[in-house]
Amino acid sequence: MRVGVASLFQNLAPGASDRDVYREELRLADLVEPLGFDSLWSVEHHFTDYTMVPDVTQFLSYMAGRTKRIALGTMVVVLPWHDPVRVAEEVCMLDILADGRLLLGIGRGAGRVEFEGLRVPQGESRARFLEAGTILLQALRDGRVALEGEFHHIPARDIRPRPFRDFDGRVYGAMVSPETAELLAQLGVGMLIIPQKPWEEIERDLAAYRRACAARAVEPRPPVVTGWVYCAAGARAAEQGARRWIGNYWRSAMAHYEIGSAHFKAIPGYEYYGQMADLMEGAGAGVLDHITEAFVATQIWGTPDQCLEKIREIEARVGNDHFVGAFSFGGMPYREAEASLRLFAREVAPRLQRRPRARKPDPAAPRRAARGGRSARSRA
Description:
By secondary structure, this protein is α/β, with parallel strands linked by helices. The protein has a single domain (about 1-230, about 320-380), classed as Alpha-Beta Barrel (TIM Barrel). The chain has 13 helices and twelve strands. The strands form two sheets. The protein has an eight-stranded parallel beta barrel with strand order 1-2-3-5-8-9-10-12, surrounded by eight helices. It has a two-stranded antiparallel ribbon with strand order 6-7. α2 runs parallel beside α3 (about 85-95) and α8 (about 235-255) crosses α10 (about 285-300). It is globular, with a radius of gyration of 20 Å. It starts with a strand and ends in a 27-residue tail after the last helix.
């Protein structure tokens, strides 16, 4: 199993400037390769302190020049917010700067504050994601774009710089709500699991994705799994830290996404979030604490042995071949985040990385040229 780190750039610490956060997060990002991890990821968000990376490809381009070995992943680029031609150009350029180390994660977004601020109708996100994804995958496969679609009218153009190697097996779609399963299968991309609900529900979503792939004769790839990590030498200290900092993160996520808000019930494509609003309306005053506790229980925390066991349990459930942990979040002091990161790197990651895997080759290894690649529908 490959093991990675996600840099979130949250600013939840009282009195911290955004520049302070960037300086500390970049310092931690510089540790990822020397500590022996396999990948570094970051996620796109806008307008709030929830996370502060409005341009993931820009951050990863910076890190491409500071690293030699690790894969660099987007978790995710939110396609409905962008011109897909520009995304294709940025992705091709980043992959050349990173010498083919890019893992591309894409998603469709859920935050009202972001859709409104970027002036994109949220109710169109499903259709926009599918159309933009089709354009992007065509560009990465053929080095050329052309489409007369519902949202984009694109004359035939070459992408320069051209993609220099195949993206087969290097594209993943984020899946939180079950409505996204069909979209990922239709695009023929892998699944990036961001656990925000019980693993039993995630397993059902994964089964739906695999059924949708089978209906299209697409072989599903092993998913990438992300998680929030708090690793400490003692079980009691680990539990206390996890409840505080992972809990803080989840409360910030609920505020950013307005989880439980009735507005989701009126937006096509967000039925899952609308159902959550219905459940929370009738659940009483303690529902927020209960949901936070459930989220914390889903994540990776404990002693090194406990963290290892939880990741192995997830692997047994979903068959992932890559785990990506976030270590700095929720207003956690950076010395505490670094201690958790270093302990995990020393005592957990090597045991996961040594495990034998009879799976496909490393997607970050050189492969055939992009212009000779298979069609988007043959990917998973």
